[in-house]
Amino acid sequence: MGFARKEYEFLRELGLGPRNPGSYINGKWKGSGPVVCSVNPANNQNIAEVVEASIQDYDEGMQACSEAAKIWMQIPAPKRGDIVRQIGEALRMKLQHLGRLVSLEMGKILPEGIGEVQEIIDMCDYAVGLSRQLNGSIIPSERPNHMMLETWNPLGIVGVITAFNFPCAVLGWNACIALVCGNCVVWKGAPTTPLITVAMTELVAEVLEKNNLPGAIFTSFCGGAEIGQAIAKDTRIQLVSFTGSSKVGQSVQRTVSERFGKCLLELSGNNAIIVMDDADIKLAVRSVLFAAVGTAGQRCTTCRRLILHESIYQSFLDQLIGVYKQVKIGDPLEKGTLLGPLHTRASRENFEKGIEFIKSQGGKILTGGSVIESDGNFVEPTIIEISPDAAVVKEELFAPVLYVLKFQTLKEAIEMNNSVPQGLSSSIFTRKPEVIFKWIGPHGSDCGIVNVNIPTNGAEIGGAFGGEKATGGGREAGSDSWKQYMRRSTCTINYGNELPLAQGINFG
Amino acid sequence: MGFARKEYEFLRELGLGPRNPGSYINGKWKGSGPVVCSVNPANNQNIAEVVEASIQDYDEGMQACSEAAKIWMQIPAPKRGDIVRQIGEALRMKLQHLGRLVSLEMGKILPEGIGEVQEIIDMCDYAVGLSRQLNGSIIPSERPNHMMLETWNPLGIVGVITAFNFPCAVLGWNACIALVCGNCVVWKGAPTTPLITVAMTELVAEVLEKNNLPGAIFTSFCGGAEIGQAIAKDTRIQLVSFTGSSKVGQSVQRTVSERFGKCLLELSGNNAIIVMDDADIKLAVRSVLFAAVGTAGQRCTTCRRLILHESIYQSFLDQLIGVYKQVKIGDPLEKGTLLGPLHTRASRENFEKGIEFIKSQGGKILTGGSVIESDGNFVEPTIIEISPDAAVVKEELFAPVLYVLKFQTLKEAIEMNNSVPQGLSSSIFTRKPEVIFKWIGPHGSDCGIVNVNIPTNGAEIGGAFGGEKATGGGREAGSDSWKQYMRRSTCTINYGNELPLAQGINFG
Amino acid sequence: MGFARKEYEFLRELGLGPRNPGSYINGKWKGSGPVVCSVNPANNQNIAEVVEASIQDYDEGMQACSEAAKIWMQIPAPKRGDIVRQIGEALRMKLQHLGRLVSLEMGKILPEGIGEVQEIIDMCDYAVGLSRQLNGSIIPSERPNHMMLETWNPLGIVGVITAFNFPCAVLGWNACIALVCGNCVVWKGAPTTPLITVAMTELVAEVLEKNNLPGAIFTSFCGGAEIGQAIAKDTRIQLVSFTGSSKVGQSVQRTVSERFGKCLLELSGNNAIIVMDDADIKLAVRSVLFAAVGTAGQRCTTCRRLILHESIYQSFLDQLIGVYKQVKIGDPLEKGTLLGPLHTRASRENFEKGIEFIKSQGGKILTGGSVIESDGNFVEPTIIEISPDAAVVKEELFAPVLYVLKFQTLKEAIEMNNSVPQGLSSSIFTRKPEVIFKWIGPHGSDCGIVNVNIPTNGAEIGGAFGGEKATGGGREAGSDSWKQYMRRSTCTINYGNELPLAQGINFG
Amino acid sequence: MGFARKEYEFLRELGLGPRNPGSYINGKWKGSGPVVCSVNPANNQNIAEVVEASIQDYDEGMQACSEAAKIWMQIPAPKRGDIVRQIGEALRMKLQHLGRLVSLEMGKILPEGIGEVQEIIDMCDYAVGLSRQLNGSIIPSERPNHMMLETWNPLGIVGVITAFNFPCAVLGWNACIALVCGNCVVWKGAPTTPLITVAMTELVAEVLEKNNLPGAIFTSFCGGAEIGQAIAKDTRIQLVSFTGSSKVGQSVQRTVSERFGKCLLELSGNNAIIVMDDADIKLAVRSVLFAAVGTAGQRCTTCRRLILHESIYQSFLDQLIGVYKQVKIGDPLEKGTLLGPLHTRASRENFEKGIEFIKSQGGKILTGGSVIESDGNFVEPTIIEISPDAAVVKEELFAPVLYVLKFQTLKEAIEMNNSVPQGLSSSIFTRKPEVIFKWIGPHGSDCGIVNVNIPTNGAEIGGAFGGEKATGGGREAGSDSWKQYMRRSTCTINYGNELPLAQGINFG
Predict the structure, then answer these.
(1) What are residue B268's phi and psi, to 5 degrees?
(2) Alpha helices (runs of H) in D73-187, residue ranges in sequence order
(3) Contacting residues for A251 by C-beta, under 8 A, at least 6 apart
(4) In this structure, what are the phi and psi dihedrals at residue A208, rounded to the nearest 5 degrees?
(5) Sorting pLDDT into bands at 50, 70 and 90, what band is D346?
(6) Which catalytic residues are annotated (chains A, B, C, D) (predicted)?
(7) Mean local confidence (pLDDT), D194-206
(8) Are C11 and C3 in contact (CB under 8 A)?
């Protein structure tokens, strides 16, 4: 059987065919759930079919995964690192193809599709180094002949639930770290990007097989809310890493907490860029363009609020509207395109409804505001002038819609930045040290990502990624994020013959 | 007005009188809620009265605390450290008196009462050093002319809800760290230890006053569930540190999560000691005695399960029962007493009910098992032989009741240790390196505290204290516990004129 | 016998009399070497006499110290921390008196004398915290059933040789850390500040005695080069921490290296302040005044070179000369004095010779340049215009003499800063982020201390203090400086029964 | 022109021919110094020729290297990491060939030759991860509106002088770290292993070229003492990492110190294995065999002293002599060989002289002791019974000669271990926790490497490698060894308008 279009033939290089089983269970591909179609957001035509996991598939997979966990956690961390290194090498070989698939199925432009895969490769390299640095501590004991250790042990199984907008990078952040830390990984990708889920899994599976390791170390399911719920409830899964909306994330956390499991949440953002009167305007305009229009406004770090100093307000907007009008909209795989389609037909409808609601709250459209008639899910990049007090400004509309707000003092600008429920990313453009250091200090931005003279997005893997408040408080990728994937033991070993007590207590 | 008994006169040294306002609000003592009596558990007579906080008191206090937070977070951390140093010095001056009060009001024996206060003093010393070491990181950026920083900022206000069994040490763990990290502290002590709450607060208050700092930096309420609920719901409190039962802790977490706040939970333990066939039996017997009988079995780290190798089972029990019979029970303030009363009349009743339930599940009393007729809440230290499968073994009965279980292999012993919902503390007694390192490794104890040849209790402040699973996952005191009291910002500063993107992405 | 002057009577509070034994040996004060007089630099009159150590005294002291080392290194670090805490408390009690003695004997103004003692107190507080944080690491091993540890053990004995300009703070940096790390300390203070050496030692001695610890844990000698040489050669002293000139330091290093000992060197500085055209001039002028005139130019961090942007060159100089002329010169103990005497008559002569030499190299005196006729060692604060190529600019003249240089570009200014053999401290005054970050980056200052908008001096204890190149490369006080005072062991423990080799090697 | 023997043809795969220029200068291969022959130690026949560097070559190379340093240090560390990753990949492709060359030219058996190359590959992987973790610190400042940073900048150029016994792994330890830290590398390999020097350099050169980077980033010279001296004296080289004898190392250090450069020394070892009475004898025998005979006793970590508890002395020796007699001696490239030749004819002569000297000091040969007549440099593996007081026991004879000593108490055994000038590696075999922890504690082994139940050799790259006392004190490979390759700057940035001074000093 062939693909509907010849241009999809490259998918065979990724192990994909016109119809694909969507569960990687105990080292084998299966699938007994519903059949879904992967749809090209640029034209809403089918790319290929995937058979999702049923609950029976899930249980079979988790059974095997639990067994595999006992083996994997005993393999020395540097050896686990070597497996992750091989995954990185495999990704390097498929970088172009995988990047193309991301672009095709998710709808982001090709450089971003490739950039997303590159990020997993970077994570693999990073995790390899980390596999020799998951260091515990030896802490001085106050008691003679005692040694106090802080050791880090694997959790067991880490569940990873990812969203459509970064259909593989977020898996990469989690899986690279989880694996070197000695955990098995259970992945549920987004229901609308099943081909990427299958392709990524296939690549990992081949590495495991080549090394004679149980395939169940990496268990993967295409599926929807039912599988997500099963993961949240499953006591065999010690940590659930969830990426998605604040609302769903909160519900996942409730379910996981009820069974005393751990959660790592990456939820909604509502990110602002502040432009001070002394800013490098050219740099700031380019940054806002990338931050607000890139990935069609569907990054969690997309800039949704532009906070301009009154003295440069109008001239900045003039320039920004100018570049907005030059944005090339179209097929994300085509060279030169800056704005691809929204991911689904439903997203396009949400955009339309959102614009109506914005208008009803007094929003004034400065540019854009309409969907583009086509087979795909294209919409215009949009700038809206609105009061900071409008309720809609506190919400995340997942589309290239930017609210513009005006301020007079730095204090006011920071208060605006901090006034939304979410706390993911934030940027300021300025050339004054006192502003920079205030912005990153106790009275500055309350977000997890606090940038200066760069857009709200584009985090590097060496730092910890994540946000505060309704963004969920989790941190992924670099810094000491790995500690969340491990169990900390405070150990005191008495190797003497006496029993001195801490705090000098005398007992008996 | 005088105290009921002359021996309570020392309380005046701690700023206490026969009747005390129980809310420290905006630097002043107040109280418009119910009047409660503090009761001596050794005779169930009143010691003194305290006026609890009303919800109006609470709101007034929090208002002031919010204002104080803005000031406190801007004071350089080493200066905050100096305030904590002065608190430590003040505690040193009152060590004997405070320790005596802890013993009197809570019921633990005097050396433990003094040890508890000593632990706060140690925490102060530790936090002073820490105030110059709350280090952020400078992380190499992949982009030229960019600097990536991980900075740590204060959260704002930390709510601390403590339990009767450590009526002041747990406050110390939290407050010392929270304060140097730049947070104001809101404390609700246990309803049955209000005098300690008032005395500790008074001591902190005097230090703040002497330094002309707002008293509201440390806000304190005597009160019960209503105040606890108010803290859990209060969006002005970024972190709630709760110590108590798994059940209440889970409810607190649910409430705090709903408003996207942070929780630090120290919940129930169900701690086991494993004794291997090669153990130093004398050391182990003494350790079990301290672990199971100390603080009348009311420590969260109390040993509740004794897992004995079959080959030493009987001889170990014989020795243990021997020392149990010599335990001196009585007034905790009297020299030589090892076992004081349970904290309340209700605890004593719970003990009685518990013993009945244990019997109904097949438990066989080897020693103890009865309450002691007296005005106080005294009970016998109790050892029970029971099947590891009995449901009651999975629960925490807060009394000096020890279950004895038998094992054949190390694997079996570790499985028993890990078979309960709680995951706080655990110990093994052995002289074999292979057993020691297995015990602290991936297939060993699943608790937060993993000891070797010492009891389950007696953590030193340099390590992180806390446990896994139903124990809540929080970590307090040493190691990097301080990070939970701060907000992490990943900052990227572009100080050049170009806009390179991460992952080498090209946009526009 | 009484002191020559009544105003010296306060010295009795510090345990000093008109004649003092100068060796603290095995817990007793002794002295069988030459008798020296401590001289007041403000009037060159004797304050009191000290009997220096003979080589016999030295040997007796070291014998006892070696014995004490075996005991001290086994005391748990947190207990050692408690001793250092008590030293800090003792210093707090004597802060005013000790500060006064520093001012009297060394010649620095009283606020600086007290500040110096405060710095030791800060170090004590810091070291107490550190005593629970001298953490080793547990590193993941690539071999199953192996544990890799990095542990830190005491060195044994640390020799500390300090200079007259910080007669006690430098001891404090070294001793606080060395002691909590488990080392005994052998101290030789400067020959011209023996009273401070005796007073500081006495204070430490009292704490040791109160705790029933061997006095030899802290062994102290007044003496000169002979004792210094003995320390350098002594194989019982694992680390020699030396503060002084580059020339002597190099010789000490040679001697210590020949016996494969370790050195920690804090040698000459030749510190520059760069003032950019955009600088806050008022802030910069005040900073240069403190940096160049403070401690009469006898700090190792004294600013000796002022590098001014041509556009502000003249106006800056005008302002600076203005404030130089208002500097109050006189008795350092008198309120309002900013400039006390040089430390010795010889220093004053060096100043005179130095000025002559500067003139011979083309230096033009803009202000000052003369000694002040008096009984004391007073000289005028001096500013010199000179070519950056003059040889004398590369040298450290230990007096309040400031060279002024002119630059056009940042690159040129940084090259000037880096063009001297020494590499201790450096500052830039600017308000541009790109300048700040370039200055602290790979192509910026090559010094150990790299400041922005503050003077070259005034390091905080939390950071590491020290410099590069001819400054010797050592680092003292904060950060991970403590590691220099310990022996690092990389330990691999095999607790299994197999013998896997690293790097997968097969042997036999 | 062809190779002398057909079996050398594989060298072409490594870019080698029968005659090779030996200096890699400014990206080009040159050589105008003496022509030397690389000799096969198994038969003393020539393998190929290399033209060594002249001093003119050296100067030309260093000139280019200095220029390249300015570029390399500005490339972001993660990009530098990517270059090191590519070097690792290139090594992986040539692992078998390079391992074979190491075995051929150095004389170690093939599994060790391949293991040595694998170690560099591991180092590359590790360094790639490290390139995003060369973290500086942000330290809390005691002054408001001040930020204190500890930043790490490249040194510039690192000189690496390696020895014949690890002709490429030691380069790997140094170069991988030095390169990601932003330093150029100047390498002088051992004069007797020039082919490995050329082959390794060629491989690095190709990676640099492919990335359009200056070849001078990695500058390499074949040569002897003259080039070594030039490196030691060269002020352009900020750090000299030297591996070799204590005597030469001390001289290098003297030269480098005279110009205030930095040294990293890996000098002689004299490593002992202690076998306790409770040891796993089989494991210990196998370990001693590998430790004493592996690499023909030419590892710096070779076990040279075997310290046996009297109770197992004779039986242990019997077993050990038994396995010694079965050791297969012969061509290192042949399968099954355990003992290859000594590296040079001179080494063989040293062995003979050494044995004579040992005998003259009372040493009794238990097995071995003779050279083996052949064209190669083969000698017998030798065990000697000798008094621990014999002077020769304190020295390092670089051959498979093992001294056996007897002890009664642990204390005595540790004293023997610590009684030599060197302090590199040490092992104990025991099953008692109290012995293990004493051994790694303050009163245990004084070496840099302190093993338990494994041989003295076989360090993993995650830990720090190096030793104390006459071993030189340097640490390479893992842990925080990277700090030695960087310049530490303590930066304080004032971003406010005030000038508060540290330690609360008031000036003017």
Answers:
(1) -60, 150
(2) 77-93, 95-106, 110-130, 169-180
(3) none
(4) -60, -45
(5) very high
(6) 266
(7) 98
(8) yes
Q: How near does any CA of chain A get to the CA of D180, in Å?
A: 13
Please classify residue D341 by burial: count the beta carbons closer than 10 Å to its beta carbon, then call 0-12 exposed, 13-18 middle and 19+ buried: buried
Cite the DSSP H helix spans in B131-276: 169-180, 194-210, 225-233, 246-258
What's the DSSP call for residue D148?
A: E
Q: Quick one: how far is CA B305 from the chain centroid?
A: 20
Q: Which of C138, B479, B458, A78 is nearest to D440 (CA)?
A: C138
Partners of C434 on chain B (C-beta within 8 Å) are 145, 495-496
- Other C-beta atoms lying within 10 Å of the C-beta of residue D411: 11
Q: In A257-399, at which residue ranges do the beta strands (DSSP E only) sit?
A: 262-266, 271-275, 303-309, 364-367, 382-385
Q: Is the pLDDT of residue B507 over 90?
A: no
Start-to-end CA distance of chain D, whole Å, equals 81
B401 vs B378: CA distance, rounded Å:
13
Reported residue count of chain B is 508
pLDDT at D1 over 70: no
- Quick check: C159 and C65 in contact, CB under 8 A? no
Q: What is the pLDDT of residue B1?
A: 65
> Least CB-CB distance to A76: which of C132, C141, C151?
C141
pLDDT over 90, % of chain A: 96
Q: What is the pLDDT of residues C314-363, one digit of tens each?
A: 999 999 999 999 999 999 999 999 999 999 999 999 999 999 999 999 99
| Residue B246: both structure tokens together | 């798994």
Q: Phi and psi of C426, rounded to 5°?
A: -165, 150
**CB C263 within 8 Å of CB C158:** no
B77:D140 CB<8 A: yes
Nearest CA distance, B81 vs chain A (angstrom):
17
Q: What is the least distance, in Å, from the CA of A94 to any CA of chain D?
A: 17
Residue D328: Cβ within 10 Å count: 12
User: In this predicted structure, what is the pLDDT of residue C500?
Assistant: 82
Confidence band for B464, pLDDT divided at 50, 70 and 90: very high
The separation between the first and the last C-alpha atoms of chain C, rounded to the nearest angstrom, is 81
Which chains touch B (3+ CB pairs under 8 A)?
Answer: A, C, D
Which residue is catalytic, options A52, A60, A202, A266? A266
Neighbours of chain D (3+ CB pairs under 8 A): A, B, C
Compute the average pLDDT of residues A490-505: 87
Query: Cα A484 to the chain's mean position, in Å?
Result: 16
Q: What is the mean pLDDT of residues C449-457?
A: 96
Q: Which of A133, A460, A461 sits opposite D462 (nearest CB)?
A: A133
What is the model's pLDDT at position C504? Answer: 76
C220-275 pLDDT per residue, tens: 999 999 999 999 999 999 999 999 999 999 999 999 999 999 999 999 999 999 99
Phi, psi of B150 (to 5 degrees): -115, 110
Mean pLDDT of A210-219: 98
Written as one string, the DSSP assignment of D375-395 is SS--B--EEEE--TT-GGGGS
